[in-house]
Structure formats: C-alpha cells, structure tokens
Write a structure and sequence with these properties.
Length: 706
Amino acid sequence: MADTLEFNEIYQEVKGSMNDGRLRLSRQGVIFKNSKTGKVDNIQASELAEGVWRRVALGHGLKLLTKNGHVYKYDGFRESEFDKLSDFFKAHYRLELAEKDLCVKGWNWGTVRFGGQLLSFDIGEQPVFEIPLSNVSQCTTGKNEVTLEFHQNDDAEVSLMEVRFYVPPTQEDGVDPVEAFAQNVLSKADVIQATGDAICIFRELQCLTPRGRYDIRIYPTFLHLHGKTFDYKIPYTTVLRLFLLPHKDQRQMFFVISLDPPIKQGQTRYHFLILLFSKDEDISLTLNMNEEEVEKRFEGRLTKNMSGSLYEMVSRVMKALVNRKITVPGNFQGHSGAQCITCSYKASSGLLYPLERGFIYVHKPPVHIRFDEISFVNFARGTTTTRSFDFEIETKQGTQYTFSSIEREEYGKLFDFVNAKKLNIKNRGLKEGMKQSYDEYADSDEDQHDAYLERMKEEGKIREENANDSSDGSGEETDESFNPGEEDDDVAEEFDSNASASSSSGDGGSERDEKKPAKKAKVVKERKPRKKQLESKKGKDPNAPKRPMSAYMLWLNANREKIKSDHPGISITDLSKKAGELWKAMSKEKKEEWDRKAEDARRDYERAMKEYSVGSKSESSKTERSKKKKKKQEKQMKGKTERKGAASKSSSSTKSPAKSVSESFKSKEFVSSDESSSAESKKEDSDEEGVASLPPSSEESASGSD
C-alpha cells in the first residue's frame, strides 16, 4: 500500500464556507493546504480520534475528530474512494472509517449533544445538522429559549446569522436546562470578552488601514484596537502573516498584519492592518506579568522590561503572541537602492515589495500575491508616457493585477528578480531590447493577436477601396445627368417666352412677375433628380461581390465546430475568447497558411470587383443615354405647347389688358398635360367672349367689306 494519498479539488468547511485546496494523507498525519490563502492545516496521526465517512452536498465527505475536541471536515470525494481511504486509515492510523448518514426526515424535534467543538442536533442516532461552536459570536437566553448568533461569512452570498432552540422545562430541581445549554455553548464559543488586564498597551499608533490613530491593547488571546470612533477586537487565530517593510525614504517602517477572516466596519472589510512607524521613535516597555510568567509563557522571546525602537517592540510582541514569523524584503534592490518600487495600482500610488515568496503592495488597497498562485507576469508598455512601463500579474484563478507608472530604470532589476524566481514571463526575451532602445520594448506586445482589431483594419481597407471605386462611378453618373448647357438652354427658352409675352403686354411689372416663378422652377428642377440619386446610392446591390474574410475569420469558420465539440455548452462570448486564445498560441507557420488563404480570397475579390465595376458602369451609361433622349423629347413637346399658349395669351392681352396683368405666366415645369388642355379650353371661351362683346357697327362693317 502507498505511504501517501493525495486528493486535488477538496473542499474544507471552515466557518460555514467551503475553501478549495489539496489534501494529503501520510503516515505522519493529514495535511490540507488552502489554495486561496496558502494556509496549511497539519493534523498529527497521534491526535486523530475518529474518522467518519458520509454523504454530503458535494458528493461524499470525511469528518475527522481529534483528541483535544477539534473537528475537521473535508468534502468533494467520490464514492469509489471509500475503500482506498478505509484501508489507509486501518493500516496507518489504526482507525475504523465509520459510515454515518445524515437524517433527512425533516423533523424539528430532537436531542442536542455537545461533543468537543461541535453542537449536534440528532433524531434518534442520526445527526440532522452540526454547528461548530467556534462560529458562535453571541449566546442569549430567554424563557425556555436559547438564541445563538454567528459570525458573518464574507465568502458566502447568504450567511446563517441566528438559530433559536426551544428547551422544554424539566422536573429536576436546582438545574435550569436553559442555563446549562448556554454554558455549554459559551465554554466553546468564539465570544471575545475583555476580561483581566492587558499585557501591554501601545498609545496613539498611526494606522493607515483602518485610517486613524489607535491605542493597541495586547491581551493573551486577542488584540484590541481602541480609537476615537471605532473599536476592533482581533483574535490571534485570525492573523495569517506578519510583514515588516522599510519605506522608500528609509525613515519610516510599515508593519502589516494579514487577517483571515478580515475585520469589518459596516460594509467595509479590512484584510490587512497597516501601521506606520518612524524609525526615530523609541519606547521603554514593561509587561504586566511577573518574570516567572513571562519566562514560562514566552520562553525567552520576551522579557518583562524591554526598550528600543517602537516598531521593533510592536513587531517583537506580536511575533511572540501570534507565534508566526515576520516576513521582510529579500535580496531585491531597485534602481535607487531601495527594496521596493514606486508604482500605481488602480487610482492610488504606493510601493510594491518583491519578497522571497511573493509580492506585497502597500498601501491603498493592500495586495499580497504569493508566487505559487501566479500563472504568469507580463511587462507592458506604459499607456500615458514612454518613460514608464506596466507590470502585470495574472493568478491561476484568472485575477489580474496591473501595477502601472513604474520608472523605466527599474525594468532591468525587476526582470532579473522575476527571472531568478522562475516565474513564467509572458513576453520573455525582451530585456535586451529594453536596454538598447525603449522603442523596441514598446513594441514588445505586437505579437499579441487582437482578432477584432485585425478584422476592423481589413474591413477599413476594403471600405476605402470600395469608396474610391464608387466615387469614380458616381462621378461619371452625375456628370452625365447634370449638363449645364442643357439647363441654360431651358432657362433661355423660358425667358424667351416671357419676353414675347411682356413685349405684347408692354408692362414692366408683368415682366418681373413672370421672371420670379421661372427662378423658383429652376430650384425645384435641380432638387428632384438629386434626391433620386441619393436614394439610389443608399441602396446596396445584391449582385456586388462579398468582401473577403481575414485569416483569423477563415480559421475560426473552419474550427468553430471543433471548439464546440471540445467544450460542450460553451456560450458565444466564451467561444470567441477561447478562439482568440487558440489563435494567439498558434505557431507562425500555421498562421502563414491562413494568411495565404486570406490573400488568395482578397485577390479573387479585387478581380470580381473590377469585373463588377466595368459592368455596372456600362449599364449606367446606357440608362443615362436613354434618360437623356427621353428628356429631350419631353422638352420638344413642352416647347410646342408653350409657344401655342404664349401666342393665345398675347392676342388676348391686346383685347383685355387688365386680364393679362392678373394672369401670370407659368413655366414649363408647372405645365402638365391637364393644364395645357384646360388652357386651350380657356382660350376658346375667351375668343367667344371677345366676339360677343364687339359692337354692331363693327360687325356690319365687317360683313359689308366681305
């Protein structure tokens, strides 16, 4: 049998949340490493008291109980792994892995049992649910009732905040079941009470997050921050890491305390407690304990009377009480000799510290990134100026951090550090280019393929070519349809007819009235064909050749079904992202094959466009010639009708001058076939009226002469 068993993607239940990580079982014990925080839980084999296998929401789970009462739960196992785990427990831990199923009857009446750190609500012999008492933040009692309140879980969308138990009265004298229930809960609950005197107090320390000045009271099990507005109680069990970082000005020091879970104030969460000290501040400290207690508890790490720099005293006391190492910057030195780099993260400027096992940024917002959770780093050109560059970090979970506005001189030092730590550099091989010429470094991300940008460029080129071709064709078309000579002739004919009418009338006012409608008619005549031309341009010819696709689009159309089959149920947006990643990762040789296909498609399109443009020009010239011929015929017909109308009006104007003044002449655009027919009928009526109005003497003389 193997000496170790390893399981990936196992979930540990901690304070109601499921933390992803890796579980390893060995002869020495059980080790679980949290993939989010990097925290390691180590359970010695000699401490294991019981192992339980049961079915849970995420498949099957393993519950381990230790001899000191602690409970550890791990979910995410498959049913087939039970035999392997059971044999391993028998061989190495000498424990039987018991199978226990949860009760699913849905009853709300049962028995409460307290075992170690767990409150178990059972129906018969089967547990219904279990509550880790370390999650309890408050316990209150009422008449026959006990209320448990829980710490809020920041990782879960919905948190259980309160549970009430009804405790029936009993006949036993001298024992209150409600108080007995509450005492059992409070003995194991995580209820922080400031009982007793503080070991030491640090007055008026400058705190950057949360901002303000706080008195820090050091108690045996927790840290108390007392400010003017807020108070925070931080258990030492929530302290994850300690950092001591020198400021770039070499006159100040940062002391950073990493917390999990964070302290809360309203909706704000503080994952880091950052204190700022001046190196010149000194302090003499006396612990509120006798020397024997100090020696027994701290084993020489602290003494009753201590003196030195303030930041040294705070870090020394915290290290002894929390029992964790203090992380300091490693061998990295920037261009100015400092152990940090000035940069900006999001909207604020701060300092980035390269550590031996990660990066930490202070101070707003603080960020800590471990090397083991980094997928790759990238050096990118600055977006605002060529005197700086950006340093990008992407984690395995897909989170991206961009530290911008880093001075150009820091590039070589940072590149050497990242290279020495064997981190995956996305644009490796560009360091020499940076030293020789910054322009070469600025073009370092040209090989990153942007499918959308390439497609837009291709379409833009094709659109410009089409615009040039269409402008040539439309220019010939407008030249043929718009002939200034013809319009001048038309206007001349109109004014000739006006001139004959005005000469017969002999009135200057009538000439001005006749010229005005002619000018308006010219404007109307010019606008009508232009509207038609615009409407014809807007329409798209369905017979026109289709634009060619880019190399990326040709490749995507050929591989779309394959990507769908490899990732069933993938959405359209995720498919396009995946396709872009595959195209980026493709070798240049394979891309050249699709580039050749795209070039062939482009040549075919240009050839087809030339043929199409020649054919469309010949068709347009034929239609224009037919329109021109038809237009001339219409002009000749309208000219004849106008001359007839002008002659009739001139004869009537000599006989009735008042009527000729009131009737203004209409240009040929306003004369239709209906109007011409009505004008002829009016002419006949006017002739009859003129004959009837002649005096008898004139008729007789006329007849006598005949």
